Amino acid sequence: MTNSVKKIVPGLVILAVVAVLAFWFIVRKPGASAEALDEFAQCLAQKGATMYGAYWCPHCQNEKQAFGDSFRLVPYIECSTESKKCLDAGIKRYPTWTFADGRKFEGEQGIEKLSQESECPLNR
C-alpha cells in the first residue's frame, strides 16, 4: 500500500462506523420499557385475553418476542402439548388471540393492534 492509501483507509473505516451508527439510531424504533410491557401484559390478562400458539410457529415467536420477558404474564396455551384446549377453543391457525367477549384474532397481530383491540394502554 502506498502512504496516501494508508492515510485514507482509517478515515474511511471511521466514516463507515459513524454512518452505520447514525443509520441504526435513525431507523430503529424505540420499544416500550419492561415496566410498560409488564403493565400491558397484565392488562391483557385482566381483560381475559389468551394467546394460543405452538413452539415451532415463527409468528408465535414474533408475538412472544414483542413482549420480551413480560410474555410470562400473558395467558398462553401451547397447542403442541395442550391440543384438547386448542381444539375446544376452535383454534385453526397460530397464533390466535381470544378475548373474554368472544372476539378472536388469527395470525400475528403485534402489540400495537392488541393494545387497540383490548383498550390496554401500551405506554412507551
Please tag this protein with its features.
50% helix, 124 residues, elongated, four-stranded mixed beta sheet, alpha+beta, 2 domains, Glutaredoxin, 5 helices
Describe it for me?
The protein is an alpha+beta fold. The chain has 2 domains: 1-30; 34-118, Glutaredoxin (3-Layer(aba) Sandwich), CATH 3.40.30. Helices cover 50% and strands 10% of the residues. The protein has 5 helices and 4 strands. It has helices spanning 3-27, 34-46, 58-67, 83-88, 111-118, and strands at 50-53, 76-78, 96-98, 104-106. A 4-stranded mixed β-sheet has the order 2-1-3-4. A hairpin with a 5-residue loop joins strand 3 (96-98) and strand 4. The radius of gyration is 22 Å and the shape is elongated. It starts with a helix and ends in a 6-residue tail after the last helix.
Number of domains: 2
Order of helices and strands: HHEHEHEEH
The CATH topology of the largest domain is given as: Glutaredoxin
Q: Note poorly predicted spans.
A: 15-29
Count the DSSP helices.
5
Task: Present the secondary structure layout.
Layout: H1 3-27, H2 34-46, E1 50-53, H3 58-67, E2 76-78, H4 83-88, E3 96-98, E4 104-106, H5 111-118
Parallel strand pairs: 1-2
Antiparallel strand pairs: 1-3, 3-4
In brief:
The protein is an alpha+beta fold and 124 residues long.
